[in-house]
Amino acid sequence: MSVVARMTGRLLRNGLPGLIALLVGIALFEFVQPVVIASFGGAGELTAIMQRIPPALQAFARARPEFLALSGLAGYLSLGFTHPLYILLAGATVVGFTARSLAGEMDRGIIQIPLARPISRPVVYAARLLGVAIICAILAVTGPAGMIAGILFARPEGEFAFQHLAAVAINSLALFWAIAGLSLWGSAAATSAGRVIAWSLSLLVVSYFIDYFASIWRPLQSIVFLSIFTYYDPTQALVTGALDRQAVVILAIVGTVAAIAGAVVFTQRDLPA
Fold it and tell me: N or C terminus of the chain with fewer C-beta within 10 Å?
């Protein structure tokens, strides 16, 4: 087994209880979505309720009644992948790992242990990069897996194509990778895990705000392209099974460029003793 793989395994094991708790939370959240829809009587009953929601709240939840009425069950289920709680849980999982495994270890001086051996900084950084990539992949399938279990359990009325969840998983993977790259960059430059978490989560909140309210607040429309959530559309993926390849590529590039920038910062910075 390579040095990178061994270091990655250690990093994942160290935070395993917290990681499992967050993954269970995400799976349960998506499991509940079809259960709730079934309790309301299906997509038809929910459409009447959604039409009474103010436009501002519709924008916040990406809930357009006319679209949901046409998209049926899949449209309502897609709201589970755009809900702030889902984004927060997934973001916390990615950011928590990058903050703990790099900035956190630099703050505590643990990072010096592998560097005291004949292990280069790029190898140390590569282990963190591989670890967060594995977490992104697990996150991308956890939500869809929870939703499948919920559908099979509650059996809500309406047609649903399970294969469309593959497109949702790919789109989610691209989003998580973008978050991972940006937070890893911040972790490489920061001096404590707390600063990384604060910076990364603040960036996610601002990005989320810009994307979700650009449709009702004109000043945000000119900068909406800066939000990573502009390129995240699980609703289209779940309803039609189509994947916006350009959006996925943009998110992949953002994550990759940020990760490379993080590698440059980490290899050149002064490390605390």
Answer: C
Other beta carbons less than 10 A from residue 45's beta carbon: 13
Residue 273 within any structural domain of the chain: no
Domain count, the chain: 1
First to last CA, the chain: 29
Query: Could you give the CA distance from residue 189 to residue 130 in angstroms, rounded to a whole number?
Result: 19
Give the span between the Cα atoms of 231 and 210, in whole angstroms. Answer: 12
Within a 10 A sphere around the Cβ of 66, how many other Cβ atoms? 10
Alpha-carbon torsion angle 127, 96, 164, 52, nearest 10? -170
CB-facing half-sphere around the CA of 17: CA atoms within 13 A: 1
Question: How many whole angstroms separate alpha carbon 77 and alpha carbon 33?
Answer: 6
Residue corresponding to tokens 């190898």? 123
pLDDT tens, residue order, the chain (273 aa): 588 898 899 889 988 999 999 999 999 999 999 998 888 765 555 555 555 555 555 555 555 544 555 567 888 898 899 988 999 999 999 999 999 989 888 888 787 777 777 788 899 999 999 999 999 999 999 999 999 999 999 988 878 899 999 999 999 999 999 999 999 999 999 888 889 999 998 999 899 888 877 777 778 788 888 899 999 999 889 988 989 999 999 999 999 999 999 999 998 887 765
Q: How many CB atoms lie within 10 A of CB 234?
A: 25
Note whether residue 156 is domain-resident: yes
